Structures are given as C-alpha cells and as structure tokens.
Amino acid sequence: ERDDAWLDFSELHPLDDGSFVWLALRDGHRHLDRRDGQTGALVTPLTRGEWDVFGVAGQHDDGTGLAIYFIGNQDAVLDRQLYRVVGDSITRVTKDDGVHEINAERLEHGFIDVWSANGVLPSAQVRSVAGNIIGELPVPHDADLESLKIRPMEMITLTGEVELHGALLKPRNLEPGKRYPVLVQVYGGPGVQKIDNSYDPRLLWQHLADRGVAVFQIDNRGSKGR
Q1: Would you say 115 and 137 are in contact if contact means Cβ atoms under 8 Å apart?
Q2: 210: Cβ–Cβ under 8 A, 6 or more apart, which residues?
Q3: How far is CA 147 from CA 67, 120, 140, 144, in A?
Q4: What is the pTM (predicted TM-score) of this model?
Q5: What is the rounded distance in angstroms from the CA atom of residue 116 to the CA atom of residue 94?
Q6: Measured between alpha carbons, how far is 81 from 94 in angstroms, rounded to an integer?
Q7: DSSP letter (8 states) at residue 161
Q8: Is the pLDDT of residue 226 over 80?
Q9: Is 108 helix (H, G, I), strand (E, B) or coil?
Q10: What are the Cα distances from residue 200, in Å, to 72, 116, 167?
Q11: Mind listing the pLDDT tens digit for each residue in 32-47?
Q12: How far apart are CA 122 and CA 66, in angstroms?
C-alpha cells in the first residue's frame, strides 16, 4: 500500500494456500482483498460497495469453499453484522438489527455473539457457524438499573449534500411552548463513530435531560463507517 498523505495499519489474515486477506481503504470505504502472499499483488477483491468492513472474524471451509467471516454494515450504517463471503457471494449471518460484537477462536466450533440495540439491553449467545443459537450466556445487570429509568435515544437523520446520523434526548417532561436549552456534544475527529444502533445508557445525557436540558450529537462526514 502507498499513499502520499496517510495510511492506516491494516489487518492481515494468512490463508492456507499462501495468500492472505487484507483490509484496506478503497474508494472511501474499508474493504477486503485477497492478495498474493509473496508479492502482495491483488488476487481478487472480496468486498466492495458504499459500506464498510470493520474487521475479520475468521475463516471456515465447510466443503463448499473457503468462507471469510467479517463484521460490516452493508445493510445499515448504524449496525454491525457478521457476514460471510465465498467468492463474490456475501451472506449475512447475524439477523437482529443492531450491533453484534463477535468473539471467535475457531469458527468450526461456533462463536460468541454479544448483541444490543438502541433501547435493548445486551444479550450474549453461543452460535453455530451458520448463526443458529446453541446456548445463552448470563449478562447480569446492576441492581439499581431499573430505578434509573433510562430512556433510549431518538435517532435522527439529516439529509442534504450527504446523509448524517445523530441522536437526541429531550427533557423527560416537555411543556408545550416552552424553550429549552440544548447541549450539543461534538467530536470532529476521524476514525470514530459516536452514533450507532447499540445499547448505550449515556448517563450524563440522562442526568441533563432530567434537569431540563436536551442533548444532541451527530457524526460528521469523517466519522467511522462512512
């Protein structure tokens, strides 16, 4: 890889045939290539499109061809799903909308899927390589969680030259016609995504909203996953 301005470190996953899977920036998005193990030359692109790959979970060959499993947001910008690619065919493995955190040592034995969504508490399941549930793992919650009366964020989409995604938490008891102060949370740096479809109590937001202050945040154009 070469660029006159900037290169991020990329993931490299060796394959049994001597080639390797390479995660790199392509046309403004991070995608997977299969590359020659000796020269680094492109053998074939594995993923392409107006979406991003966030990491490789592993590889598995069930007899129908080598499948590379990866985390991506092909179906929704705010989600993280597990997909598999065989040749040029991509299949989604996890089904629930939201953010899936995948832990896999050897995919032939399955993987751990920690899943949550906006307003939905995390759960943890052991799944087969096909995505079927094998078992549940306990996810204990703090005893005082219910007493906090945490509310989910209102997800906001702003459309214009580009589509931007944000979140809003209004004061709990809004009075018609009354004006309220708004705190705008800002992070303008690259490589970070603050708004996604995961469970996040945002306790500071809850504290402020319960005291009459609306809180708003939006991911800018340089954000991760865009």
Answers
A1: no
A2: 171, 172
A3: 46, 16, 16, 5
A4: 0.93
A5: 12
A6: 6
A7: S
A8: no
A9: helix
A10: 20, 9, 11
A11: 999 999 999 999 999 9
A12: 31
